[in-house]
Structure formats: C-alpha cells, structure tokens
Amino acid sequence: MPKENDFLNQLKSTIEQRMSDESFGVTELAEEIGMSRSNLLRRIKKLTGQSVSQFIREVRLAKAMELLHQGSLNVSEVAFQVGFSSVSYFVKCFRETYGYPPGEASKQVEEEEIDSVTAETFEKKQPNRKLIGALVAVVLVLAVAAFAFMGGDRLEDTSVEKSIAVLPFKNDSDDKSNVYLINGLMESTLINLQKIGALKVISRTSVEQYRDSPKAIPEIADELDVNYFVEGSGQKIGDRIMLNIQLIEAATDQQLWAAQYERDAKDIFKLQQEIASNIANEIKAIITPTERKQIIKVPTDNLLAYDNYLKGRNLLQIGNLERIEEAIPYFEKAIRLDDSFAAAYASLAFSYYYLELFQSDRKHVKAMNEMAQKAMALDPELPESHVAMALCEKEKANFDAVIPYLERALELRPNSAEVINLLSDMYANYTPNTEKYLEYALKGVQLSRVDNDSITTSYIYLHLSNALIQSGFVEESIYYVNRSIDYYAYNGYSQYVKAFMLYARDKDEDMLRDRLITEWEKDSARIDILQEIGKVSFFMRDYETAYHYYDLLLNQLAERNLDVFQYEFLKVGMVYEAMGEAEKGQELIQEYYDYVSQDETYYRDIFLYVYYAYKGEAEPAIEHLKAFSEQDSFQFWLVLFDNDPSTDALNGNAEVAALWKKITDEFWDNHERLKTDLKEKGLI
Fold first, then answer.
1. Is the pLDDT assigned to residue 155 strictly greater than 60?
2. Which helix (H) or strand (E) holds 476?
3. Which of 66, 174, 208, 563 has its CA at a distance of 20 to 30 angstroms from the CA of residue 118?
4. What is the pairing mode between strands 200-201 and 170-171?
5. Which residues pair with 243 in a beta bridge?
6. How far apart are CA 627 and CA 242, in angstroms?
7. How far apart are CA 596 and CA 575, in angstroms?
8. What is the DSSP code string of 102-166?
9. pLDDT recorded at residue 85
10. pLDDT tens digits along 423-475
C-alpha cells in the first residue's frame, strides 16, 4: 500500500513541522494538505481506525518518546516541545498510550534491553517449547470451560466502547404537523437506550445541532466521540406510522442494521421497545431484567393522551417561556384523557418549575408539588417522577431531600446527562461534596458533547474545571478552563476562575489581584469579583486597597438592595476597623456572627472558628476547629489561602497548628484517593 503510506507520511511530516503549536488541530491539518475536513476524517478513519485528533496526538506522543529517549530534556520541556501546554495532561495521554509515565521512558528502554537478553537465554535453556505450548493450550481450554460452567455464556467484545448517539429523526412528510410525532419517536428511542447501563448514550442536547447538518458521519463521530449512530425518518399517514431506522458504525460509515416499520398507531409502544432492543442486540449490549422491564413499560393506554403528551414534550424541549406556556395545556389535556398518566404529571411539574425560573412571582410551587406527588404515587419506578420530586424539594430549599431522588432517577436511567448535571450542581452549590461534584461533572462532560464553537461548551468545561480545582487538581483545571475560554473568549466567569487556578499554581497574590481587577473593569456590575478583590487585598494585609474595593461593594449592595456576602463581613469589618471606622466595623462583624450562627452548611464550624479566633478566644475557637476537622469533604480554597489575618491571635497555638495540619493532610489524602478512584473508573 505505497500510496496510503505516502499519504500517512505526508500527514506526519506536516504535523511534525507544527509540533510545538498546541492550536494545530484537525482544521489546520486539513487546510495544510488541501483536503476538506470531512474527507480527511473519512480517510484517516479508513486507514488507521483513528479519528484525526487521535492521529495527531499519536504523532505528538511518538515524538515525545523519541525526545525522552535522547535524555537531554525533562518531562515539562518535552511536553511543550510536542504541543502540550498542560504537563499533567501530557502525562495522562502518555500513560494511556504507553502504559507508563514519561518519567520512566528511559528506564523502560533499559528494561526492554534486559528482557531481550533474558528471552534469548531462556530460549536456549528450553528444549521442549512445543510441550509448553501444548500445556498452555490445555490451560486455556480449561479456563474457557470453567467460564462457561460458571455462567459466562458468551464472551463479550469489549474492544469497542458501546457509545451511541441518536441523531434527530427526519420528517418524511410534507405535513409539518407530523414533526412532533417524529421528534417523539426519536426521544423515546433515546430514552429507552439511556435505560441500558451497558451503553454510553449522548444527550439529546448534544445531537440536536446536527438536525440539518451537512457533516458526514465520520466527522460527527469525531466531534461526539462515539462509535455508533442511529438515524431515522418517518411519517404518519392516517392511523399508520411508517418509520425507517438504521444503525451505523462510525469508524466505517457502514450500515450495520436497518429496518422498515409500518405499524398502526396503537402499536407505537411496541414499536419503540422493538427498536431499542434491536439496536442493543446488534452492538451486543447486555440488557438486565430490570432495564428490560423499564423499556417495555407502557406509559398510557390512551393514544390520544399520548399524542397530546408528545406535542407538549416537543414544545417543552424548545425551552423558552413562550413554548413552555404553550406546552402546559397539552399536558393538562393528556391528564384529562388519562388521569393515571404519570409521565404527563411529571412533565407538567417540569413545566411549572421552568416557569418559576423565568418569573419573580413564584406562584406555581403548590401546583408543581401536586403534580410531582401524583407522578410519584402513580409510578415510583419512573425516572421522571423522581426528577420532578427532586425539583420540588430544591424549590423548597430542602436540599438534603433532593439527592436521593436524583440518585434513584440515575439508577433507573444511567445515561441521563440531565440528571447527572443536576447532581453535579447539587454537590457543587447546595450540599457541597467535592468528590461527588467532580465525579458527576466528569460524567456530564462525557455524555454532553456539543459543537466546537458553542457557548454551551464553554460553560460545560467551566463547570468541569471548577470541579477539578475544588478537589485540588490544579493543572487539570487550568487545562479545562483554557478549553472553556477557547470555545468562548468572552466567558467572564472562566477568566475569573482561571485567576484563582493560576494562583494555586504560582502562589502570586499580586498577579491574582491584577487579574481580578482586569476582569472587574470589563464589567463593573460583577460584585462577586469586587468582593474577591477586597478579600485578596485583605489577605495581602493591604487594608487601604481592601477598604477601597469593600466600600464600593457595600455601596453596590445597598443600591441594589442585595442581601449577600454576609459570610465575608468579618473581613470587611476588620478592614473598616483598620481604617479608623471602628463602629461600622463592629456592626459588620456582628452581622457576620448573626449570619454564621444560623448557617446550616458544614462550613458553620469553620466560620465560627474564625470569629472566635478574631476575638482571641482560644477555647471556643479550638472547639469549632475540632468539629470542622471531622469533616471529610471541603473545597480547596480552605487550605489554599493559609494566611488569614482574622486568625492572627491564635498564631503559634500548638493545638490550632495540629488541627490545621490534620485538615490539610485529610484534604490531600482525599485528593490522592479520589485520583485513584477516578482513574479506575476511566474518568481521568
């Protein structure tokens, strides 16, 4: 295959010429060699079985191996030479490719040479290799027999990840009123596949962008990182539904399976079940009895009720206020036609919840709760029932009650990106747990693949980078926050969080403050940044600068009638005291104490420790610090900023120092345990 080899060599040569340029990717390579992006993707996939981005990374890593063997550069220098700005990400990719970290590359060469000598010696000393081969064969036969005897009735092919995307179905009819039905069939196929734990199913939000896309399957596969696609088209004529479904292997763009269905509308549920089962069988995904029970469940016996439900769901998916209001009458009609239709009650609860997000007058809480309770009573095994109950409890600020509902929903639908993102948000903001936050943020990224120029992608990566830094993954967080900024350069939240990530790496307070001021000057309404500038200045003991920004903050809070940041008021009060405004400072400090005394999060004890440390009251301060030291999950910022003027009075106290050491050690022990756990789960 000389032509193919020439082509691959040309690609490698082109990549090597731009080796140190991190931004050199698929688009740039296609332009350099004069091919369209889609043709390049298709040809690389055919020749190597890889995506273009995988091929580029392999060339970079091969060059890295060569440089490491030469021994003149360290790991960091090699990483930058081959186009990795993040050393930790380079180490991760290198280990995944070669099975050991780059720091051991030269050692591995020595071991391979020793192994080669040992192998030659071994071969000379073994007179009967055929006998050994026969014995090995017998052992293998016995092992396979034992596997079958113990219940392993088939050896599952695990070489290809069972990842799948259901592309938007097409309406084959000129009748636009049929669109809701076709979209409903697409969504039901997606939902049924999401119920199968052996599959990784990309979310509907991620695939919706390809509804009218001219991109080829290999190109979409490269963007979504999946191995299989489901395509469909259909129409409804009278009471007959006609549907064409095909399963496509992404690597080859070849059809693996296809079926044409023509059924009465009354058989729509059997049709949905059959499609999901056929797809799972074709890619050898095991469906457990519990999952099959979920798939074959019939949501309603009333087809007219289901028709109205599909119309409502189609509008609800659009997501704006006008469409949500239009969806509600369809759900209400579905319920009138079948008052035992649990999914309709749940969707009506969702509609009320999202209406509340758009309106300051919260007038739907009671109705939302009633609909969620009804859905749960009718079908406690419906994932939507649990999500509806979770949203109700969240709306009522019963945060501890939210998690069990969401976790049960995820058990029933393991591939739901929406549920995973809700869990991630809960563990980040309402019931803080850094380990769970990071785990679900990583899973959410895996299932939510969006277009390369999408603002949404920027916020997904921001969410992940924040989860990483909260658990102490500094280099990884910088890598993902940079990706967030690459996708949307005007994402001010990413730039703001990045300032702290760079501080975690460099420990440069002046640069941190300068970066925060730069971001605040872009948008002076950002009181969150204003508060942080004051805080950093306080930690730097630059009370004059802190006073300037804290004064601006308090004025803005008063003007906008905002009741926030009370947990920071001890620092603000100390700054006012330092600047000669003792009375106002004491008022702020008292407001801090009143607020944290009523705090119900597990940070209450650390807040009270700071208060009593400020007052120089060692006994109650130590009591609260001891109580906090029993916590097993807290955010990185607590151990990152370790020079708080608020606690100066207890500097030198041996018991306080020992407790802080315990807290810091616990954080880093959890960090290492989490790193191991996430690697085992394939999440990092």
1. no
2. helix 474-487
3. 66
4. unpaired
5. 234, 261
6. 65
7. 19
8. GGGHHHHHHHHHHHHHHHHHHHHH-S-HHHHHHHHHHHHHHHHHHHHHTT--S----SS--EEEE
9. 65
10. 988 888 788 788 888 888 887 777 665 433 356 677 778 888 988 998 999 99
- 84: three-class secondary structure by DSSP: coil
Asked if residues 229 and 255 have their Cβ atoms less than 8 Å apart, the reply is: no
Is there a contact between 648 and 578 (Cβ–Cβ < 8 Å)?
no
- Within 13 Å of residue 263, how many CA atoms lie on the same side as its CB? 16
| 133/136 Cα distance (integer angstroms) | 5
Helix/strand number for the chain, H first, E second: 33, 6
Rounded Cα distance, 424 and 444, in Å: 8
What DSSP string describes 573-594?
Answer: HHHHHHTT-HHHHHHHHHHHHH
Identify residue 435 by its one-letter amino acid code. Answer: E
Dihedral sign from CA coordinates of 267, 273, 279, 281: negative
Q: Where are the beta strands (DSSP E) in 30-73?
A: none
For every residue of 512-553, DSSP letters joined together read HHHHHHHHHHH-TT-HHHHHHHHHHHHHTT-HHHHHHHHHHH
Closest C-alpha among 425, 420, 394 to residue 407: 420
Annotate 606-622 with DSSP letters as a single string: HHHHHHHHHHT-HHHHH
- Amino acid in position 243: L
Q: Helix (H, G, I), strand (E, B), or coil: what is residue 199?
A: coil
Other residues' Cβ atoms within 10 Å of the Cβ of residue 347: 24
Q: What is the dihedral of CA 188, 190, 193, 197, to 10 degrees?
A: -120
555 CB neighbour count, 10 Å cutoff: 10
Measured between alpha carbons, how far is 360 from 362 in angstroms, rounded to an integer? 6
Q: Which is it for strands 240-249 and 228-237: parallel, antiparallel or unpaired? A: antiparallel
- The residue with tokens 């030469």 is 70
DSSP 632: S
- Contact by Cβ (8 Å): 277, 286: no
Question: What angle (nearest 5°) sits at the alpha carbon of residue 530, between those of residues 524 and 535?
Answer: 165
| Token pair for 215 | 């991109």
Give me the residues paired with residue 230 across strands.
Answer: 166, 247
CA nearest 432: which of 391, 526, 440? 440
Buried/exposed code over 66-77 (b: 16+ C-beta within 10 A; e: otherwise): ebbeeeeeebee
Contact yes or no for 278/259 (Cβ under 8 A): yes
Q: Which sign does the torsion angle of CA 540, 544, 548, 554 carry?
A: positive
Listed residue (642, 664, 681, 672) closest to 473, CA to CA: 672
403 phi/psi in degrees, rounded to 5: -55, -50
Q: What is the chain's alpha carbon radius of gyration, rounded to the nearest angstrom? A: 29
**41 in Cβ contact with 222 (< 8 Å):** yes
Distance CA 494, CA 514 (A): 16
Contacts of 354 (CB under 8 A, 6+ apart): 316, 319, 324
Residue 341 has pLDDT above 70, yes or no: yes
Angle at 258 between CA 255 and CA 264, to 5 degrees: 160
The residues pairing with 170 across neighbouring beta strands, listed in sequence order, are: 233
Whole-angstrom Cα distance, residue 83 to residue 24?
8
Structure tokens at 645: 């003027």
Instruction: Copy the structure tokens of residue 308.
Output: 């109205």
Q: Does an H or E element contain 170, and which? A: strand 170-171
Distance, CA of 43 to CA of 540 (rounded, Å):
57
Percent of the chain's residues with pLDDT above 90: 32
Single-letter amino acid, residue 406: L
Name the residue among 222, 203, 209 with its Cα closest to residue 30: 222
